[in-house]
Write a structure and sequence with these properties.
Elements lengths: L7 E11 L17 H15 L5 E5 L4 H7 L6 H18 L6 E10 L2 E10 L1 E11 L2 E12 L9 E6 L5 E5 L3 E3 L2 E3 L1 H7 L1 E3 L3 H19 L2 H22 L2 E2 H8 L4 H12 L7 E2 L4 H4 L4 E5 L5 E5 H4 L5 E5 L5 E5 L9
Antiparallel strand pairs: 1-3, 2-8, 2-11, 3-4, 4-7, 5-6, 7-8, 9-10, 12-13, 14-15, 16-17
């Protein structure tokens, strides 16, 4: 994983227009002029993909056309190779109307002496801009709709791939499912790149979290669920803070240390995804941000956001279960309070 986007050195880039409404791809015969501003734009998108916890590490299948093109990579044939890649993608897009139209930015770049090829699918966005017409009476300013706006540098791409040109059998990608013959499909990996691989860190975390919640919901009543879910969140936050991630068996042991039957049921659920012995190591702080606070909403409409270090400090906050089953929250030792 890259430390900063400044580690990236852009070698060459090209854009191919893949607008299904045109009936054919508009393939460029000339590379782009990568000035400093545009180079920063490309680096920003590559870095955002590379540092995403949605990224998956995959291996190309032998029948992948993209793999064979990467395997025979020649920088001098950059235009020709990327045209073939864009043609492959456009054929799939043209056959499946739900896949959004886009520009394909193909970028050859280096990190130190290592070479990569980025395939950035820039799905179009609709926005408004101004247009000026001049006539004998002066300027006529108007607002027009522009339907082919590309994602900005801070926006994440739905589909992108980073191919290691030193080891072209490996590719890392982010993707989104779209309807293919009426079925939600990861077309980018299955139909276009023809690769398969591990789940992303974000998906692994979501599956583990969901499996734990399902079992807790099954065995605990509503009042108990509130307490065990807060404790689960605290355990996960501690693992992220101290270890940067967690080993699934270790964290499941901690969550269900007094409930072996629940632990076994969670393990059975995770076994279906080959996650029973997995390690989850998110890299992006946004993925684990929700575990840094207890976000509570009462049935009376009161909303509480409690930093995890405060939740774990019993001198600061206490949850009291009353004889009638209701819950009281006691916030202690407040130095000052203000309205926002």
């Amino acid at each position: 994983m890259l430390g900063t986007k400044d580690e990236i050195r852009i070698e060459q880039a090209i854009v191919h227009i893949l607008d299904s409404s045109l009936g054919m791809p508009v393939l460029s015969d000339v590379v782009l002029d990568c000035g400093s501003d545009f180079s920063d734009f490309l680096k920003g998108h590559i870095f955002k993909v590379d540092s995403s916890d949605e990224i998956r590490s995959c291996t190309f299948q032998k029948e992948s056309s993209v793999f064979h093109l990467a395997e025979e990579w020649n920088p001098e044939k950059f235009i020709e190779i990327t045209q073939k890649i864009a043609g492959e993608l456009y054929t799939i897009m043209n056959q499946n109307i739900d896949i959004p139209a886009a520009d394909l930015l193909a970028v050859e770049y280096r990190v130190e002496k290592h070479r990569y090829l980025a395939l950035l699918k820039m799905n179009y966005k609709t926005s408004y801009t101004h247009m000026t017409n001049s006539d004998p009476w002066g300027n006529n300013n108007d607002i027009i709709m522009q339907k082919a706006i590309l994602p900005g540098e801070t926006q994440k791409l739905s589909e992108a791939a980073l191919i290691d040109l030193e080891a072209p059998q490996y590719v890392r990608l982010v993707e989104k499912k779209y309807d293919v013959n009426g079925v939600k499909t990861n077309y980018f990996s299955k139909l276009f790149l023809k690769c398969s691989g591990a789940l992303s860190s974000k998906t692994k975390l979501a599956i583990v979290n969901k499996a734990v919640e399902e079992v807790q919901k099954k065995y605990f009543n509503e009042s108990e669920q509130f307490e065990v879910r807060m404790e689960t969140k605290s355990i996960l936050n501690e693992e992220f803070t101290q270890q940067g991630g967690f080993e699934v068996p270790v964290v499941i042991d901690k969550i269900f240390k007094e409930h072996p039957e629940m632990k076994e049921e969670v393990q059975e659920k995770l076994e279906k995804y080959n996650l029973k012995e997995a390690t989850v190591e998110p890299q992006n702080p946004n993925t684990t941000k929700k575990f840094t606070k207890q976000h509570l909403m009462t049935d009376t409409g009161i909303e509480l956001k409690i930093p995890m270090e405060e939740y774990n400090n019993k001198d600061r906050i206490e949850f009291i279960t009353n004889p009638d089953g209701t819950i009281s929250v006691l916030i202690k030792n407040i130095g000052s309070i203000e309205s926002r």
